[in-house]
Amino acid sequence: MSGFVFSEKPIRIDRGEGVYLYDTNGNEYLDFGASYACTPVGHCHPTVVDAAKSQLEELFYVQASYPHAARTALYAQLADVAPGDIDNVWLCNSGTEANEAALKFARHATGRPKIIATTRAFHGRTMGALSATWKNEYKDGFEPLAGGFEFVEYGDAEAMAAAIDDETAAVILEPLQGEGGVNPVSEEYLRSVRTETEAAGAALILDEIQTGLGRTGELWAAEKYGIVPDILTTAKGLASGLPIGATLCREWIAEDAGNHGSTFSGGPVVSAAAGATLDVIERENLPAHAATVGSYIREEIDNRLGDSIREIRGHGLMTGIEVKRGSNRLLRDLALEHGVLALPAGRTVLRLLPPLTIEREHAEEVIDAVEDVLT
Questions:
Q1: 154, 163, 161, 94: which is closest to 129 by C-alpha?
Q2: What is the dihedral angle through the alpha carbons of 17, 21, 23, 26, rounded to the nearest 10 degrees?
Q3: Buried/exposed 330-343: b ≥16 CB within 10 Å, e otherwise
Q4: For residue 114, which of 126, 131, 127, 97 has the smallest C-alpha distance?
Q5: pTM of the prediction?
Q6: What are the pLDDT digits (tens) for 305-330?
Q7: For residue 243, which of 68, 51, 98 has the smallest C-alpha distance?
Q8: Closest of 34, 40, 31 to residue 279, by C-alpha
Q9: What is the separation, in whole angstroms, between the first and last Cα of the chain?
Q10: Beta-sheet pairing, 88-92 with 245-249
């Protein structure tokens, strides 16, 4: 069997239902990775399945210059739930494309070249988004990348203020870093960045590709910190795993965003699935549920395993457990011995990103499993 790019795990997945995945041998796995947060309402949620099937029977595809009901409805729905006065929506196919568009829009709207990103950031793998990504292992062999990017320490308000100047088009950052290790920052830091970018006439881009859609306990992490960015990007779970990304912009960005396009922007089926996913998140009040269950997970792990781990951190159902040894063996043991699928976030951080629909009994099962493999 041939393969390319992705290394494959020794578990062949056959189907999914709710918070569970099943392999071809019939084994059940509690999915605490949600394929990198791509299934916020669980696998094959009936509302999402029905919406996608219904649209599939009417229209597979039409190019984005032709309006259709599912896309038009999604535009309005995203504008309605976006923070503050963000009313403009650009649809694409992935998070990296959403960030690529955000960087282009900010440069065009400001007429400036400089983009400031942060240490340990991950924003994607296309040439522009990769230029804003910190880790060299993602960039090795692909240089030269897009120019004009500068990095400052994540969470250092003074360093950020010193870096922002009249050449700065945008600051791009994650309100809670995911791939970089599940690293939170203070409300004061994000408010300071918001103040400094506004004063300089630069755009603030919040990458909410992993933190958005209720994962941190609010629909958007921006709301948790009480700020409104100029651009917010979202993707991953927006259509329950179907490929979609969205770049949400304030008016001053949208009115001078430049010439940008995408063949598959807001296709009918994916738009219908995204609209249904948002409906479920709101109707079932999943952000508040994520806040409650996520707090329980972190408190219990800290109480039981405080001496066996370095730190536990996160918000809502986005949790990082920094362990005292490599995380890969722990992930293997969780999967093969306990039927729990989790994720890494660097070499020593175990990352939990379950569907927002998990219940306390699922959390307890995973806490027991983590305790077993760590002790």
A1: 94
A2: -60
A3: bbebbbeebbbbbb
A4: 131
A5: 0.96
A6: 988 999 999 999 999 999 988 888 89
A7: 98
A8: 40
A9: 38
A10: antiparallel
| Residue of 65 and 282 predicted with greater confidence | 282
88-92 and 114-118: which strand pairing?
unpaired
* pLDDT, tens only, 216-239: 999 999 999 999 999 999 999 999
For residue 267, give every residue at least 6 positions away whose Cβ sits within 8 Å of its Cβ, in sequence order, or none: 60, 61, 62, 71
Cα(184)–Cα(313) distance, rounded to whole angstroms?
7
307: Cβ contacts below 8 Å, ≥ 6 apart:
none
Asked if 367 and 297 count as a contact pair (C-beta separation under 8 A), the reply is: yes
Number of residues that this document lists for the chain: 375
Average model confidence (pLDDT) across the chain: 96
Query: Of 3.30.479.30, 3.90.1150.10, 3.30.450.40, 3.40.50.10770, which CATH number belongs to 13-45+287-374?
Result: 3.90.1150.10
Which sequence spans correspond to the domains of the chain? 13-45+287-374, 46-283
Residue 313 has which token pair? 């951190």
Fold of 46-283: Aspartate Aminotransferase; domain 2 (3.40.640)
